[in-house]
Specification:
The complex is a heterodimer of chains A (about 950) and B (about 425).
Chain A: H1 2-32, H2 39-56, H3 61-83, H4 93-111, E1 122-123, E2 139-142, E3 145-148, H5 149-171, H6 173-183, H7 185-190, H8 195-221, E4 223-224, H9 226-242, H10 248-266, H11 269-274, H12 278-299, H13 330-353, H14 357-382, H15 390-408, H16 412-431, H17 439-457, H18 461-464, E5 481-483, E6 487-489, H19 497-520, H20 522-532, H21 534-539, H22 544-570, H23 585-596, H24 601-620, H25 626-635, H26 638-641, H27 646-673, H28 684-688, H29 691-707, H30 713-735, H31 739-768, H32 774-803, H33 807-829, H34 834-858, H35 862-891, H36 898-934
Chain B: H1 2-17, E1 37-44, H2 55-69, E2 77-85, H3 90-103, E3 108-113, H4 119-123, E4 130-132, E5 145-147, H5 161-168, E6 173-178, H6 183-198, E7 202-206, H7 218-227, E8 231-235, H8 238-250, E9 256-259, H9 267-271, E10 279-282, H10 294-306, H11 312-331, H12 337-345, E11 375-383, E12 386-390, E13 398-401, E14 414-415
Parallel strand pairs in B: 1-2, 1-3, 3-4, 4-5, 6-7, 6-8, 8-9, 9-10
Antiparallel strand pairs in B: 10-11, 11-12, 11-13, 13-14
Helix pairs in contact in B: 2-10, 2-11, 11-12
The chains are: A mainly alpha (about 950), B alpha/beta (about 425).
Chain lengths: ~950, ~425
Amino acid sequence: MANFLNLSAQGVAQGAIYALIAMGLVLTYKTSGVFNLAFSAQAFIAGAVFYWLNVDEGAPLLLAFIIAVFVVSPLLGLLLDRAIFRYMRTAPWSVKLVSALGLMLGLPQIILLPAVLGPELQSNPPNLASIVGISQDYVFKAGDFAIGIERIIAVVVSLLAVIGLGILFRYSSIGLQMRAVVESPRMVELAGVDADRVSAYSWMLSSFMAGLAGVLLAPIITSVNPATYILIIVPAVVVACFGRLSSIPLTLAGGIAFGLLEKLIGSDLLTNGFGMSSDLVSKLQVSLPFIVLLLLLLFLPGLRTRREAQDPLSGVDPPPPSLAASYKDASTQRLTKIIFPIFVGTFVVVSLFWLSGIWVNRLTAGLVWTIIFLSITVFTGLGGQISLGQTAFALTGAFAVGQLIDHLGMPILLAMVIGALIAAALGALVALPALRLDGLYLTLATLGFALMMGTLIFQDPTISKQPTGFVLNRPLLWGNIDVFGWFTIHRDFFRTDDGFFVLTLGVFAIVAVGVILVRTGTTGRSLLAVRGSATAAASIGINSARLRVVLFAIAAAIAATGGTMYGMLIQNTPDPNGTEFQAIVGAFWVVLVVTVGARTVDGAANAGLSFVLTAWLIESQRLPASLQIIGFGFGAIAYAKHPEGVVEWQTRRGIQDRARNAAEKARVAGLKARGLIPAHFNTRDIGLSAAPFGLYALYWLADGIYNAQVPSLKVLGVAFLICLPFGLGPALKAIRGDGESRRLSLILLVISPISIYVIFWLFTAIAKGNPPNVKWFEAACAASAAYGVYWFTRNFRDMRAETGRGLGAVGGFLLALASVVSATAGFFLVKDNLFVGLALGLIACPIFFVLCREIDLMTTAVTRQDRINRYTGFGLTFMVLFMIYLRKLQFGDIQPEVLGTRILVFAAIGAYMQFLIGAQSVLNDYWLSSVEEARDPAEERPGEAFASLDASQPVPAGAMGSVELAGEGT
Amino acid sequence: MRVRASIVLVVCLAMTMATIGVAGAQTSGQPGVTSTTINIGGLAGVTGAQSPDGQAFLGTQAYVKWFNAQGGIYGKKLKIVAQRDDASRASQDISQARALVEQDKVFAILPVATQSFLGATYLATTKTPVFGWNINTEWEKGKNLFGQSGSRSAFSEAETYLPAMAKAAGATKVGIMDYDGAAQSVACGDGQSASYKKYGLDQVYRSTGLNFGFTDISGEIAKMRSAGVQFLSTCMDLDGNVAAAKAIHQAGLDVKVYSPQGYDASTPKKYGSSVEGFYFSTIFRPFEAVGNNKAEKLYLAQMKANKYPTSELTLVGWVNGMLFTQALKNAGKNFTQQKVIDAVNKMGNWTAGGILAPVDYTQWPRNNQRPNSPSCSAIVQVQKGKFVPVFGKPGKPFVCYPVNPLPANLDTPTYL
């Protein structure tokens, strides 16, 4: 009896902690509709900041606690809301979930960067006892019962938080508003409530709770480690589900109940009381959170039949766009059919006959990941659901193959097929109980399944042969093959780099064709029908249950095939505890694929190759590998704006660009016909003023690559002189425009070459390992920044008042550029303090992003947004450059790989060219619009069209009213 | 505009790709050897692991700096040309291993410190000497792979130091704590169990259902109390061990705890009273028992001069450097990679100047049988916030037993 009471008390204490975290999840779900899996990341950040302040910097405990929980955490929540989630309020659940997953993965890695707090784990964090005058080591004892002060504090705080939240939601107006916003922010605004403000408060409150949980949990788990915080989220999810993701009191009750259950199972009750074997009890203990999660999702009334709260106005939202390929005209489609095979053939020939073995191996790895990611293309792209369980199916395939080879001596390719079938059967089995689940709940169920497989099944040495795993040797041919006497394919061909590349390409082709056939066949069309309306689909005889089973089975089989190919790549079955196939890594796979493109095969291919090549690019610069996770994690936020994925978005943009260019040509022709602009005028004249900079940059690049040297001014000067005639003439034509456009042209002419030269000089200096001359660079940056700030502050308000938009875009960019170069200068000044330097860089670039976004809000034209997107590419390049220098400072004399550096420099040039083109087109647009507005057709006098735009004469008042983009293509 | 920009970018890319690769000015026909340098590179799990292993690089860096300051060898200096991070990913480990050999063209690879060393399969097929931290079974795969304490792994075999430690601590009832959800931890636990059984200790407790990152072990505490555990050995990370020790302390149990990880100068300061009384074992001379050992004194002095931490990982990097340069000396002036490999494989009693317990590299295959050299461990205990060597003798911290075959009892160790 004493033992039972002891365990019960421990269970209540433990359960209260789970409830605290679960309440944070419930709070954000109730108020924003986001199931914030990034809660664990926010908790980790608060814990890390608290530890750093108190342990590393010696700040008093109370101060560290206040800063971490009351300042940093709410600010982080506010930032997440302002920058990300407020734009997703009416977005589908999948968008919100993927974004949260991306943040869950990316946020902690920022803290772990060497320039921030570093990758060393923070161990033995303090508890809060001494704030209230109690010893850190205090233990309350009563007989055999003992509980440490850190748990007592956690229990008390959790209970207070429950009470506080309950009061807030029940009795306060802000609580009511928070609940209303998640139902329909648009209707709430119609009632006169600022939905944005309410949402911000919700996120700040939820983040505050995350901070609280992070600081309270740290001394209990004795370390501040993102992996641990992520694992804690699992029982919290269980408890949140028990509360039906809505009820605070039920969440608390669920937490306590789960804590009690854990303790009782861990006691002797099952072994002594029920005669169960300790091995079985052990397995039950390990998998308890996942079993309970699955049972709750499948059987709990209210959760099983719960439907997502829908915005009543969502019925008028437009349907998602069709695939970009459907927009192509006949000639483009014909061109694609010709170019695509040439591209694939070139890729294969170059890979086999030109690239070194190590590069072939990298590309093969990219193809292997592509095969795995195609399972997500099927499940998410076609099925519209999100599965976090693909790691489990991939491992199932690999281990099944290992078993078949080990026990039956089966050839590996045959074993791979059977392994895929076994995984398909398992997938179908998993689908059956999950038939009634949808959306978020299905996703959670797949997560539970993956975690259970990872901790229970794959740890069993009889299944996975852990810790060594099975050796998976690549297949052998039946013998040497003589090809018409020209050459011989040896028996061990597939065991060479080239041979395995060919094999992987073949497997990829088969799987890709299969995916396309599924997509274009009956199954794919039925899946789309069910996505559109399950009721309507059922009414025409589509069996959605059968489809769900088929979906799981196909996705599982593809993942299993990919898992086996991965095993052949590394010649061993994957490690289920390793960083590539742990259960939670499935979240990263989903984030990566949906960001790049989940609906198409080339989206998966881009994702797979990006996964490998970005890792290489980052490592080539000796940068922290976690930058990849940060990049893709935050890239998931782009999913909100472009749920079709980056690949589809770019494809569609290319098609729209062509239409826009055609429309612009027609518009200019119309202006010429009306005599408003000279017949010889070419809109690209303004754009061509950017050409000299691009041309002499290319000349420098060629010279630099050829000689691997810092470019000399002489070279640059010669290039400038050669290119000048091509650009100066058109630029002068533009300068003939009104005062504003002339100033802009001058700025572009003057600032661009300075900044280009400085940037490229810096890159090469870094690549060569020579630190740049700080004073020179500072002077250049400061001058550039100062002029940009001066010009902008003088002219922005006037421009905005007169034009409303348009020029503000370019001006906004210049301010951002000034911020960035100032930050660069600041970075060099404080180069010994990496944290401050990075902070400066990070501050500068978000300014850039925010400005561009605000400018976008001033406009309504889609084309402006596209142009502004080009500017963001420039900003991102700058971020990369900061990181290059961080690498230099971290690794001292260890040189980066030259190829990687050159690719980054090349990317910088590309981004800069895109900026120039974008800036020029904005300028061009503005100028043409002002021409159209300035002329009253009734007063038009042929041949004098340009006279009114002479710089010496002011533009007539009222002529620069609204700048319409007449004739603009979309 | 877009098409033109695309053409520009493609041209740039083609020009860039056309210049891939820079040939090194090699003089001896051996990769990574020039007239003035011997190029080396390292591989570690700097990011992505629960315990970042990049510290090993620091040890090698410090050694190279010191060695070059002494004049190098054969008129050449050691040059670290690459320190690659495999992010603790298996596929990346293989890729980075290949990059060291095929791209960086290093003469030797040191240090290697990673949780996932699948690159060993590839490296075993090359002629590149590889030196590192042998926490993986892959070190057994090739004659050119040399762990700092040998290349043989025997996680789940019975051995002597643990039961000897438990007996020396006065315990008769022992317990084991490991992570059920991690196969390697379970294998370690099986080895400990076999060890206790062989030498007659009564294993009265073994944990069930523990997972990495546990927050509460009150159930396990209750079991330990009921069983009367006196000595607890673990197969967990140090943070897990500390959490367990805290719970044990709060419950008022008098249990001595052995942690396989965590012998690090910062441990007592970082963990405070939570690790008071902990036992740790090392296969190198504890820093507190340096005595007159010149080699370890040199290591400590160089770490201090470079402001690098003293830890097992930096020591691994340092002794890897020592082993490599010793092998270079043994190989002679006309050294080649094969000669260096052969030189190490002839070493049956390598001690790194007394830093290590004797290491035998002569056995091949590595996992065929136990080595002929004795198995030695140095044990330290945290007493009043400091590491104190225990169970050894003054000036001889290593407690050694033969392993081939294992002794019948633990009554007559030798001390080194």
